[in-house]
Every structure is written in structure tokens, then in C-alpha cells.
Amino acid sequence: MKNQGKAYIYAILTVLLWSTVATAFKIALREFDFYNFVCFSSLTAAIALFAAVIFSGKLKELRATTYRDLAKSAFLGFLNPFAYYLVLFKAYDILPAQEAQPLNYVWPIMLVLISIPLLKQKISWLSLMAIIVSFTGVLVISTHGKLLDMKFSNGQGAALALGSSLIWAFFWIFSMKDHRDETVKLFLSFAFGFIFSLIACLIFSKPAFVFSYSGLAVVYAGLFEMGITFLLWSKALKYSVTTARVSNFIFASPFLSLIGIYFVIGEKILPSTIAGLILIVAGIVLQQYAGRKSTIPRIK
């Protein structure tokens, strides 16, 4: 049953929560390495999603999971949360939050690029223009506005942030082809993601949880970046008359994130960050419009 008022409430809650996670990432990384961060945040998300499975009365669907479903979930869990957040948190570890956050935001453009070879999609001139506009924004942020010099402030960090957006785009495509119940599917993905991240943590680090502000930030990220917020967003899409009415709310998230980054983390927001972010979002909006005119899959 459609209820646009409820859809807007869920969409606004989602955007507000997602707007805080860049700040939480930087706080968590003060005391946690990125292996422990992925491990404990994915565990938090898996617990929260299991609770959601129980309270939504979907244990029956979970029990009906087949070995083939488990294999799908293991693959999806490897992509997200394991690989995606491992790369993303490493990017946040070595980049200022104001750079890592918008660079990771280009995943819709990455989605278009990988749809060409994977889904045999043709790219329109509007989509091509959208890609150019967004990646110009990436260059503006990565070079601190010094485009002619082409000297990246941190090439490795920029590559990792962009790489995380590429992993997310792959996850999005494969997840959309899996038509199982969303809550059950997310829980199993994060359960497998936790297993993978725990193994990586045992090999490359040492599992250790710190009860501090950083520890709270890890739990917060697990709840409101990885777990509950995805369910809120799916509710927004479910209740909305059209996806377009709520999907545009997402464009406010990276700009709102800069507020927390400035006031909580204390980073001075560079003009190049704002200019680059505007270009990235403009490219994504242009791609949304191009998606209505082509066979390239739309973002939401």
C-alpha cells in the first residue's frame, strides 16, 4: 500500500543517518584498524538484521534458505560488507573524510560503466556527458582544485575510494538479480561478511574491541551505515508512489555530511571539495535523466 507521507519520513531518516556515517568512520579509525572496524561493524549489522528478521516474522523465509541461496549470500557478503568496507575504511584511514566521502559517492557512474560490458548496454551521449562531469568532480577533489598540475593529494587514497564505489556497483547489479526477501538476504550477506572479515582480522591483525567513543562509532556504523538504514530506505521505496519522489533525497546526503566533518572532525572544508561534489552530483543527476531515455539501469 502506497503512502507518500510515510515514504518521505523514511527517506528523510535514511538521509540524515547516512549523512553522519563519514564522521563516525573517522572517529572509529582513531583507535581501530580497518580490519577490526569491518569485523565488528559487520557483526553489529548482522545482529541487528537478525533481530529484524525475527521481529518482521521472516524466520520461515530464513529457514527455507537453500544451499544455492547460501552460495549467493556468500558471494554477496564477500562483495559487501567484506571487500567494499575493507577498501572504503582503508580509504578513510588515509584520506580526509571530505575527500573519501564524495569520491566513494560516484558508484552510480561506475554502475553505468560496468553495465556496458556486463549487461551489454549501449551508452548514450547523455550518459557519456554525465561520466565526464562526475569524473571532473573527482579530479577537482583529488587535486584540491589544481587540475592543470594534475598532482593528486593522495593518489592511493583516491584510488581506494573510487575502487570501493566500483565494488559497490558490482554488488548492486548482482544483488538486484537476487529476488529473495530483502531482510533475509541482507542478514545472510552480513553474516558471511562477518565471517570473511573475522578471518582477515585473524590473519592480518588481532581482533580487539575498545570500549570508547571509537568503539561506539564502530557500533553506530554497523547499525546506521550497514544495517538498519538499508531497511529504512527499502521502506521508503516501498511506500513511495514512484522511486523518483524519494531517490532525489539521497543527493542531500554528501552535502549534509560536510557539516559533521567540519564541526565534529574539525576538517576545514576546502572550496575544491564543494565544487567537486557539486560536479559529481550534477553528473549523477544527469545520468538519472539519461537512464529514463536508455536501457542503462537507473540508480534507484
**Which of globular, elongated, flat, extended, rod-shaped describes the shape?**
globular
Beta-strand segment tally: 0
- Percent of residues in helices comes to over 70%
Secondary-structure-derived class = mainly alpha
Indicate how many domains the architecture comprises.
1
Radius of gyration: 19 Å
| Number of separate helices | 14
Mean pLDDT reading: 87
Order of helices and strands: HHHHHHHHHHHHHH
- Please report the distance between the alpha carbons of the first and last residues: 19 Å
Give the strand content. under 5%
Largest sheet: none
Q: Flag low-confidence runs.
A: 294-300
Give a brief description.
By secondary structure, the protein is mainly alpha-helical.
Chain-wise SSE layout:
Elements: H1 4-18, H2 21-28, H3 34-55, H4 59-63, H5 67-94, H6 97-104, H7 107-118, H8 125-142, H9 155-176, H10 182-204, H11 213-239, H12 244-247, H13 253-265, H14 271-291
Helix pairs in contact: 1-11, 2-11, 2-13, 3-5, 3-10, 3-11, 5-9, 5-10, 6-9, 6-13, 6-14, 7-9, 8-14
Can you describe what's shown?
The radius of gyration is 19 Å and the shape is globular. The longest helix has 28 residues. The C terminus is likely disordered. 75% of the residues lie in helices and 0% in strands. It has one domain. It has 300 residues and is mainly α.
